[in-house]
Amino acid sequence: MIIKTTGIVLNTKKYSETSVIIEVLTLDKGLQSYIISGVRQPKPKVSPLLVRPMALLDMIVYWREDKDLHRTKELQHKYMYSQLPFDLQKSSIGTCMTELISNIFIEPDIEQETFEFIFSSFKELDQVQQQLSTFHIWFASQLLHFIGLTPSGIQIKDTQLHIPTGEFIYSKNNPQYIDSEISQTFQQACLADSYKELPIGLKKQHRKEVFNTIIQYYQYHIEG
Asked: What is the pLDDT of residue 6?
């Protein structure tokens, strides 16, 4: 069976001296793996740029329900990056995004709205010119909405996050909950329609703690 779909390359692994296996989040089949033969040899038929992590692709693939590893018939760029692969900060953020996606979408299905959000976020990351430092915080917070895990109580002021119950609770300085300032930034990111709405000038350590808290939240509610 031949399927035409759109995909986001999440990971690329060496398979042999001349081939690789790519892990791709696809619109039609969710997370899938494909073997790309000959891409590591001189003058390959498939450009190495097409199998690079974060590549956004139009794909024609051979599909068999009883297989875990598939083959591709044709790969083309759906969107060609102008900055992301060549900008260290952007590529680092993109790597955080692909790692998060790989750990969430392990089933062979994904809602179209969710896929389109992820796809457009990589395009936006490529194009953004300012306030880049909070993009991954916004992305990870917004993705919770698409998978039905947004904490409750995000509209309540003066709260702290309680990870086990998945809610922002009216509280201040309770050591059993997440720090108030970290909780507030996470809350703002959940409510923001754009990364541009997040506060400018957040300190590096604060951004790190917020993102780590979000990852901790994912781990608790997805991995249990």
From this structure: 97
